[in-house]
Amino acid sequence: CLSAPTLTEGYLAFLGMMTRYQRSLVLRQQEPDMLKAAKGLQRLRDVKITQDYDAACALFLGQTMYVFNVLTAPDSSKAHSIVRSALMSTKAWLPRLVHFPIMDTIIMTPMLVDTVECLVRREVPIIRMPSTERIIVDRYAGVCATLLPLLYDLCACSHTMRTGVLGPGESPSGMYEQLADIERVILDWKPPNNPEILLKHGQYEVLAMMTQANAYRLAALLIIHRLRYPLGVEDETARDLANSIFAIISHFADSAAQETSALPVVFPLTMAMIEIEGPGEELWERLSLFAVQSMSATRLRGFIKQVRACRETGYEGLWFDLVDTQLHVAMPP
Fold first, then answer.
1. CA proximity to 9, closest of 61, 86, 80
2. Helix, strand or coil for residue 142?
3. E strands within the chain?
């Protein structure tokens, strides 16, 4: 009763669109209902938040409309703004919601999506993951909750390096020192892996979560490396990190891909594919059972090929500088 006024149009648009990805011969495939989707976006713009439940509805609607946009728009590079709108509306409520396990599935996805997009586009996420004493295990973000604050810090440092707008007492050289500090913390970071997680979630689920967490950690280190060095410089270190990402995901594909319904590794795999051609393309085929992620990855290949082409023709800048003109799709987790 409480969620219907906020969620109905966006949810119906999303469910109607998802019938296109079902294998059932009974369901009739339909074109996306853009009218319901537009009404869903209007609800998100007009949402009034006066209690926890309102904030949860806004966050859920934001991620629903984000996926709808990614799967229906030829140019989904603006889908990120939908998630950011939901997060901005609920920012004051998130430090409270993070203490309720029932909210994990609603708050973690938009924060992960925002952080990944900001890493690539060198922006600052709407919110730094609030701290909590409990271990968060989420259906989408896995066990990356304690990594998200470090990725936020990396985004903020990268954004400052891009804009050159320094705070009081900051210097350009100081930003590289800050980058090195963030790198040391990420190098030391380990995903939580206590016996309780294994007992509660099972072998294949735990392997999927650990694969995602370790791939994200390596992708963050690869981003740090490429913030220091343009394409063509210190490529060997970049290739080593990329090969480590491929190896981790390949091990998962060999062991548990058929036992798991989803693995959000589009982002780390994309970072690695920018550096090396071949292994990533083969992995996409092996993970193609994840239909929604597979479609996102296919669209990202054009950007990856463009970055590789720039490297081959002697481009000497950071690949991040190509994002504004060459990346026309969302960068999903």
1. 61
2. strand
3. none
pTM equals 0.91
Decide if 79 contacts 69 (C-beta within 8 A). Answer: yes
Would you state the pLDDT for residue 67? 87
Residues 6+ apart with CB under 8 A from 59: 86, 87, 90, 106, 107, 110
Q: What are phi and psi of 265, to 5 degrees?
A: -130, 20
- CA pair distance 200, 323, nearest whole angstrom: 41
Mean pLDDT in residue range 120-148: 94
Q: Which of 30, 41, 32 is nearest to 6 (CA)?
A: 41
CA distance 293 to 319: 23
Who's near 271: CB < 8 A, 6+ residues apart?
219, 222, 223, 242, 245
Q: Residue 138's beta-bridge partner residues? A: 142
Q: Cα(15)–Cα(74) distance, rounded to whole angstroms?
A: 19
pLDDT in tens, 91-123: 999 999 999 999 999 999 999 999 999 999 999
At how many degrees (to 10) do helices 79-90 and 34-46 cross? 30
Other beta carbons within 10 Å of 84: 20
Round to whole Å and give the CA distance between 175 and 166: 9
Residues 6+ apart with CB under 8 A from 235: 275
DSSP 329: S
CA end-to-end span of the chain, whole Å?
32
Whole-angstrom distance, CA of residue 306 vs CA of residue 319? 10
Cα distances (Å, whole numbers) of residue 314 to 9, 221, 233, 307: 49, 24, 11, 11
Determine the 3-state secondary structure of 92 from DSSP.
Answer: coil
3-class SS of residue 130: coil
Record the tokens describing residue 260, joined without a space. Answer: 């798991």
Q: Which two tokens stand for residue 101?
A: 């396990």
φ, ψ (nearest 5 deg) of residue 138: -115, 150
Name beta bridge partners: 142.
Answer: 138
